[in-house]
Amino acid sequence: MSPRSTHSWHNWAGNQRATPLRVSTPRTTAEVAAAVRTAAADGHTVRMTGTGHSFTGAAVAEGVLLRPGGLTAVRSVDTDSGLVTVEAGLPLHAFNKVLDEHGLALANMGDIQEQTVAGALQTGTHGTGRDVAGLASQVAGLEMVLADGTVVTCSRDERPDLFDAARAGLGALGVITAITWQTVPAFLLHAREEPMRWDEVLQRVDEFEQDNEHFEFYWFPHTDGCLTKRNNRSEGPAKPLSKVKYWVDDQLLSNTVFGLVNRVTRRVPSTTPFVNGISAKALGARTYTDTSYKVFTSPRTVRFKEQEYAVPREDLVPVLRDLRALFDKRDWRISFPIEVRLLPEEDAWLSMAYGRRTAFIAVHVYHRNPHMEYFKGVEELMVAVGGRPHWGKLHTRDATYLEKVYPRFGDFQALRNDLDPERRFANAYTRQVFGS
Lowest-confidence range among 128-132, 255-259, 350-354, 416-420? Predict the structure, then answer.
């Protein structure tokens, strides 16, 4: 047996840790393939980690851990077609800058840009949108290393089943080494952020979705306060937040002060309703127009743990009302706002929005606070309407449940059995969600 490495790994939230047998940083696809073949010869499993922004054990490596920092090249940019190929380890924030330099952009994004492109894709990162879906719907091709060490490519025309399965495949079908993205011409977004009361938001959510390209809102538990966000394309000119306004709102209030709030409510939970009431009022109305990725994403320095479920769009309002009623029944003291986003249906087999218009409901707790009871109560509500857990966020669902809510789950399993019968890319999390 190989001696266990002295290298340790942990995720951003600090709730997942690993000490793999071996760690390497491949710099080419060929080196990834060699690492997979060597691991197979030694009888070890292989996982490529990202930047650790998943709260689940998706990236935990039990055998060989491949670090992504050597695979960050931009291989090609075609400004005419919008096709851009980059390697798997390139961080989204670096990718966004490359695209902007070439007059291109992703059509939709999640709200942080710290993940690697492959890590974000493989866990189903999505954002919010009326017409444009998540990252899985903006991919034109994949390069990946299979369990036998062979390198393959796939797209809608080439090995389409593998393409549809692997776009949100959790690395269970192979190691993604490069992604070809279908980008769009760079654009500005006009952002309108406005506090609003709970009843008005729920009454107008259909209107807000219909009238805006990107709509989301946050509810502050124990209060009637919500913060709505409406983002729409703009011809310009750009009118970004001033440096002072950005620092006060996005750095001081949303991160520094919010971190202090969580330390206070951790020590004195009874203050949470009062503090949330202040927080709901502190983030006031504002409008600005800026480069799309600067509007889609925000800095997040306060560490937390998160659970997110995708529910059928038509169930959103009833589920939210049930969730608020649950707060009245349980002795919860939750300082983090609850986030609601919307997405059209997607066609990647394991996208949380596969085959249906979807609403996403995300709940968070401060990373040092217990989460089990709160997440369990919320999860029970989501499961009752056939909710699908976010692959990168905490949940307790297993393959027995997931095969009931994903129509192509059996097809994914069959493809996995064919491509990786020895489970070269398995870990405890894949055994939970896909079975052994």
Answer: 255-259
Contacts of 92 (CB under 8 A, 6+ apart): 109, 112, 113, 114, 115, 116, 117, 120
3-state secondary structure of 244: helix
Please write the tens of the pLDDT for every residue from 329-352: 998 999 889 999 999 999 999 999
From the list 271, 269, 266, 273, the residue with the least C-alpha distance to 368 is 266
Total residue count of the chain as it appears in this document = 436
Question: pLDDT band at residue 146, thresholds of 50, 70 and 90?
Answer: very high
The three-state secondary structure class of 256 is helix
Would you call the peptide bond into 237 cis, given omega within 30 degrees of 0 as the criterion? Answer: yes
β-strand 104-105 against 17-18: which pairing, if any?
unpaired
pLDDT tens digit sequence for 51-107: 999 999 999 999 999 999 999 999 999 999 999 999 999 999 999 999 999 999 999
- What is d(CA 385, CA 116) in angstroms, rounded to the nearest whole number? 32
> What DSSP string runs through 89-130?
T-BHHHHHHHHHHTTEE-S---S---SBHHHHHHTT-----S
Alpha helices in 155-312 (DSSP H): 160-166, 198-211, 243-246, 258-267, 272-282, 292-296
Does the pLDDT at position 353 exceed 50? yes
In single-letter form, the type of residue at position 142 comes to L
Our separate counts of H helices and E strands in the chain read: 14, 20
For residues 52 and 105, give the distance between their C-alpha atoms in angstroms, rounded to a whole number.
24
Tell me the Cα Rg of the chain.
21
Q: Counting Cβ atoms within 10 Å, is residue 224 exposed (0-12), middle (13-18) or buried (19+)?
A: middle
Phi, psi at residue 412, to the nearest 5°?
A: -60, -45
Q: How much is the pTM?
A: 0.93
Position 331 scores a pLDDT of 84
Q: How far is CA 369 from the centre of its chain?
A: 21
